[in-house]
Amino acid sequence: MSSGVGIVSAQCAHFTQPLELKGGSVLPAFDLVYETYGMLNAAKSNAILVCHALSGHHHVAGRTADEFGKPTANVGWWDNIVGSGRPLDTDRFYIVGVNNLGGCHGSTGPASPNPATGKPWGADFPVVTVEDWVASQARLADHLGIDAWAAVMGGSLGGMQALQWTLSFPERVRHSLVIAAAPKLSAENIAFNDVARQAILSDPEFHGGHFYEHGVRPVSGLRLARMLGHITYLSDDQMAEKFGRRLRVGAGSYSFDVEFEIESYLRYQGDKFAGVFDANTYLRMTKALDYFDPAQDYEDDLARALARAKSEFLVIAFSTDWRFSPDRSREIVHALVHNGQAVAYAEINSAHGHDSFLMNEPHYHAVVDAYLKRVKL
Amino acid sequence: MSSGVGIVSAQCAHFTQPLELKGGSVLPAFDLVYETYGMLNAAKSNAILVCHALSGHHHVAGRTADEFGKPTANVGWWDNIVGSGRPLDTDRFYIVGVNNLGGCHGSTGPASPNPATGKPWGADFPVVTVEDWVASQARLADHLGIDAWAAVMGGSLGGMQALQWTLSFPERVRHSLVIAAAPKLSAENIAFNDVARQAILSDPEFHGGHFYEHGVRPVSGLRLARMLGHITYLSDDQMAEKFGRRLRVGAGSYSFDVEFEIESYLRYQGDKFAGVFDANTYLRMTKALDYFDPAQDYEDDLARALARAKSEFLVIAFSTDWRFSPDRSREIVHALVHNGQAVAYAEINSAHGHDSFLMNEPHYHAVVDAYLKRVKL
After folding, report:
1. For residues A314 and A174, is the Cβ–Cβ distance under 8 A?
2. Which of A127, A186, A188 to mutate to test the interface with B (most CBs of B within 10 A)?
3. Is residue B250 over pLDDT 60?
């Protein structure tokens, strides 16, 4: 029997020591919003950091409460894997979810006040990288008194953070779970990201990133970006199975209204996302993806780049993921094997494309469960 | 030795008999702009119709002339395959290229005057289908005195027209060359098309399709649509080889300017296209793709749908085409084989993805050449 973590609430850590970013600018101070599940043991050796992907945040598991303390429908994005008896077992581990710098869920980001002006940062919020996120998360680890994570874990862009942790702080992470990720983006990946960014940047309501002051939001551009992104998260087969070519309303209307179910689905996803997400955050998240390339300083030799990691690794890929295909995960595995580093690799048959890492796939969860069970505390 | 067709000029045929469209509306009259290369023989048995794809037109081969009769740089989009000694051999065949209804290269389309108002049709121009195009092309065949085409040929959306010809007019086409096509779009194909359409429809300068009257063009939306389309025309490997992750300017700028070469390339393609193409045409071309589904009236049984064709077929697919993969071409081949119909199939190894059908791939051209050489006149 497994059970979820129940009602959760976020906390906020304020950091006053300036953070120098990879791009050269300095954040004088910043907040990180986070949630925790389970109990930190006395040795502080049972902490797992969960890193989020492009549109994620600190609310990983459980439900938030309404003003009367009742649970809302706001369930964490990875709730299916966190809880008592679940792979990230809260009876054993202390799990930390954090909203990344530049985000739009409470941590310091483009909508936060710029201390220099008192107005929202907007376009002036710096471009942040995976390395910057890891550096800021290390501050959070300090704040929580955690010298070394039992594990750092994430899917997609979150998996890149799990990998970067082993390079930025080799002594501070004992296990790295890199799921549905890649050692760097392909030209095609960058191309999709750039079209998404162009959709936002060319929306007249973007106002060069200073839309907050105009009381508007670039909803149209953000909606297009999300629709496009969503296509790349699903598998072709899954779309075919889920939507086929079914018409939403009987015969074709010979107009540009919604006709096929896939159109209805995508527009709904786009509208929902555009209603809540911050366009400046979206731009920065995609840019962090594009920039991630640990082998860049090693003449594209990934094995050399990963040699300084001291962590053990679990790498997981999904058969129908065409955004970061199993081939890309295998690049990481081959580099680690080449170095004689400890790595386990699982390639999971799943119909859900890139999104599989969020799904309740029994085989996938069993692999994570088995791996984490052997992590010594 | 092969040579091109030299300087060419377009002609315009005007049709006054109303054309009833599949969507139910009626075009009272229409123009089709076309070019021809080679000579129609006395028996009128050597004519090949070349159908164009999404952004194509009637200018298939040769160069247009400037006002002084000198050749311009405006080379036809399939020039590499048409000419004396080329696969579409103008010493033997009479080749016809036509701009489709709803286009923006001279044939009646959204920018043409609506006879009811005297103003451009704009949004009121009907949605046209592959069947409608074939019906209008049959009028052009009548106009040229051609009872039956020796062959109808096209790539991508053009291949769908080549297939539809065999169904709409089984007696009027002896060979059908269906290249880089599919018997219908997948949900993923439709999804990409819908995002492209949404980019145009949500551009404030689209003005509900009546932008002509406002003296503006939805350049931004059209540019996004083309950038997105372009990603799907190329192969991932080809992009990797051509652009990799090379930065256009030394180190990262940590901004949203062009940084990676792939971004520079895509934005250039988007800008170039958006500068000349008509947004209303683009909407209609993608919709014609989405609607194409000859098996729809046959309980999705493609073999039954194709049974009435009397043509012989050459079907060609390209290994790295992920827009319309070889699997999709094989669906057509299997249906024809099931019916005992005459079909040859070639799957060409090519690095150029969907765009391969436009490329000078020796193996591909050799297959077309060999096939057409055995076409009896």
Report:
1. no
2. A188
3. no
Backbone region of residue A22 per phi and psi (left: phi > 0; alpha: psi in -120 to 50; beta: other values) = alpha
B49, B306, B46: which is closest to B154 by C-alpha?
Answer: B49
Task: With CA atoms as reference, report the closest residue to B290 among B112, B103, B129, B135.
Answer: B129
- Facing A239 at nearest CB: one of B187, B243, B291: B187
- Which residues from chain A sit within 8 angstroms of residue B256, using beta carbons? 197, 201, 283, 287
Q: Which helix (H) or strand (E) holds A303?
A: helix A302-306
Q: Identify all chain A residues contacting B261, using CB atoms and an 8 Å cutoff.
A: 187
Q: How far is A376 from chain B (nearest CA, A)?
A: 39
List the single residue in A228, A256, A283 with the smallest CB-CB distance to B201.
A256
CA nearest neighbour of B224 among B244, B194, B254, B246: B194
Which residues neighbour A350 within 8 Å (Cβ) at sequence distance 6 or greater? Answer: A318, A319, A320, A321, A356, A359, A361, A363, A364
What's residue B23's pLDDT? 94
Residue B14 has pLDDT above 70, yes or no: yes
A260 contacts B190? CB cut-off 8 A = yes
pLDDT band with cut points at 50, 70 and 90 for residue A32? very high
Residue with tokens 């094995």: A303
- Which residue pairs from A13-21 have beta carbons closer than 8 angstroms and sit at least 24 positions apart in sequence? A13/A139, A13/A140, A13/A143, A15/A136, A15/A139, A15/A143, A17/A139, A19/A101, A19/A132, A19/A135, A19/A136, A19/A139, A21/A126, A21/A127, A21/A128, A21/A129, A21/A132
Using left for φ > 0, alpha for ψ between -120 and 50, and beta otherwise, residue A299 falls in left
Chain A nearest CA to B228, separation (Å): 7
Residue A197 and residue B291: Cβ atoms within 8 Å?
no
For A255-284, what is each residue's pLDDT tens digit?
888 888 899 999 999 999 999 999 999 999
For the annotated catalytic residues of B, the residue numbers are 156, 321, 354
User: What burial letters (b/e) apply to B146-167, b meaning 16+ CB within 10 Å?
Assistant: bebbbbbbbbbbbbbbbbbbbb
| Residues of chain A positioned with their CB less than 8 A from the CB of B251 | none
Q: How far is A287 from chain B (nearest CA, A)?
A: 8
Q: What is the pLDDT of residue B56?
A: 96
Contact criterion met (CB < 8 Å) for A240 and B186: yes
Which chain A residue's Cα is nearest to B124? A255
Q: What is residue B248's predicted lDDT score, i.e. its pLDDT?
A: 62
CB contact under 8 A, A283 and B227: no
CA angle B310, B311, B312 (to 5 degrees): 130
Residues of B in contact with A24 (CB under 8 A): 254
Question: How many Å from the N-terminal Cα to the C-terminal Cα in chain A?
Answer: 23
Residues A305-356: tens digit of each pLDDT: 999 999 999 999 999 999 999 999 999 999 999 999 999 999 999 999 999 9
DSSP readout, A200-269? HHT-GGGGGGTGGGGT---HHHHHHHHHHHHHHHS-HHHHHHHTTT-BSSSS--SSSS--BHHHHHHHHH
With beta carbons less than 8 A apart as the criterion, state whether B101 and B52 touch.
no
Q: How confident is the model at residue B285 (pLDDT cuts 50, 70, 90)?
A: very high
Contact B227 A262 (CB under 8 A): no
**A195, A224, A231 ranked by CB distance to B198: nearest:** A224
Res. B191: pLDDT tops 60: yes
Per-residue pLDDT of A284-301, as tens digits, reads 999 999 999 999 999 999
Residue of chain B nearest A129, judged by CA positions: B254
Residues of chain B in contact with residue A293, where contact means CB-CB under 8 angstroms, are: 245
As a whole number of angstroms, the distance between CA A346 and CA A330 comes to 10
